[in-house]
Amino acid sequence: MFSRLMKSILTMARQKPQQQTSHVSEPQAPGPLSLNRVLDEFQGCSDLSHRNYPMIQADILFFDHLVDKQKFINNVIIPLENIRREELGGLLHQSQFKLEDETTKVVRGILDGDAALFVPQGVYLISVYGPEKRAIESSQTESTIVGPHDSFNESLDTNLSIIRRRVKSSRLKAKQFEVGEIFKTKVSLLYLDEIANMDFVNRMSDRIQAIEYSAVFDGSMLLQLIEDFPSTIFPLFLTSERPDVAVSKLNEGRVVVIMDQSPSVIVGPTTVFEFFTSPDDYYSRWAVGTFLRLLRYIAFVLTLTLTSMYVSITTYHYEMIPINLLASMSESRSRVPFPPVLEALLMETTLELLREAGARLPSKIGQTIGIVGGIVIGTAAVDAGFTSNILIIAVAMSAIASFVIPSYTMSGSIRLIRFALIILSGMLGNFGFIFGLGLVIIHLSKLTSLGAPYTLPLAPIKPSDWKDTFIRGPFWMFSKRPKQSRSPNETTNKMKK
Known about the structure:
Blueprint: H1 2-25, H2 35-41, E1 48-53, E2 58-63, H3 69-81, H4 88-92, E3 97-100, H5 103-111, E4 114-119, E5 122-127, H6 156-166, E6 172-179, E7 185-192, H7 198-209, H8 219-226, E8 238-240, H9 243-251, E9 255-259, E10 265-268, H10 279-283, H11 286-316, H12 323-333, H13 340-360, H14 363-384, H15 389-404, H16 408-428, H17 430-446, E11 448-449, E12 452-453, H18 488-496
Antiparallel strand pairs: 1-2, 2-4, 3-5, 4-5, 6-7, 7-9, 8-10, 9-10, 11-12
Helix pairs in contact: 6-9, 11-15, 11-16, 13-14, 13-15, 13-16, 16-17
């Protein structure tokens, strides 16, 4: 009898915790949309404003710093303060009141700058978004002498309006996306219907939708998540703060991506040669534009090769130096205790430090640091015997040539390649220099932008597109868009004709 009683007690003791565990593991079903549920979502958000109107049983939730004060007063405060309870139904039928029935949509609406109105008839979102934004100003990174001087800012709506004012055509299409799993950022994809190649549009759209990242803060981050080759040092998409550049690329059949909170747009597909073009080329006479473009290519060759050629020649190939220059170079190098490769790396690193310091300091101080620092350090280094005066000239010319390149991102890539070529030239001489250039060319030839060749029209060869690649031909020659961005329907129409 006693043993049976003990067994029953032990059995109940074992079953009780199992029942408790199963009860705790049961998922709770989400409750209906209510004021309390939305307030729970914003628990701890002290900047959330909550207004109550007991006479009409209404509550309003909004972020004061996201709403347009005048619009909020006119569309929300004044109507609610001057209405009776029985008249509320007629007010809610107006267009600015949007009925919602899901908690997530109401929360998202409040985060987007809407005001949420809780009344017995339901929950309504009122569009009163209007935060402070930067005015339309001139671009600080893409200055131009002639042509338009406006630029994009950090507002997606403002940037879209700037493009719409220029492209007054129903062919301009826009697709809307959101990127970032936590920080939802709006993105717009723009293209011209029947002009853009839809393969590029679909590829860009698929890559944006496939982004799995908690937060994307700027267009420069976005393009690194959608590139064909994320590990390359070369930029595979063109970025610009200038509306005229974006519109011209749309006219060529390219795809333009605008991201909220980013002052620059992304253009694709692009080629390596587009990073050496400038809007000034098209606003000047074609002969002047051609001269400036050729000057940039010369600057590209100088900044890439000048210092590494100095290292290669002074280390292994003195026979390449003219006789008249050999004596002065030997005298200049006689007091330097370092090999040429170390000497060049030391001066290039010093130059990069001065460049970075000048960029981070306030503009007036930064210019002073760059000029005074460069002169003082260069003169002192030569006098102290740390470097030769010939190398100072080569490094200075390389730095000046790098500033001629319009694209800052491409300029940064070239600076990295310059360091690699200096090391190869110091190790293997001219063979290392040519070997490094060959690797760069091979790497460029395999890159693609949205699936299009990065080195077009040079590889594959498209001579018809050279008129706007190495030179800036007259406008009467630009009757067709580049073959890279030409849509299939253009080819079909041509065959029909």
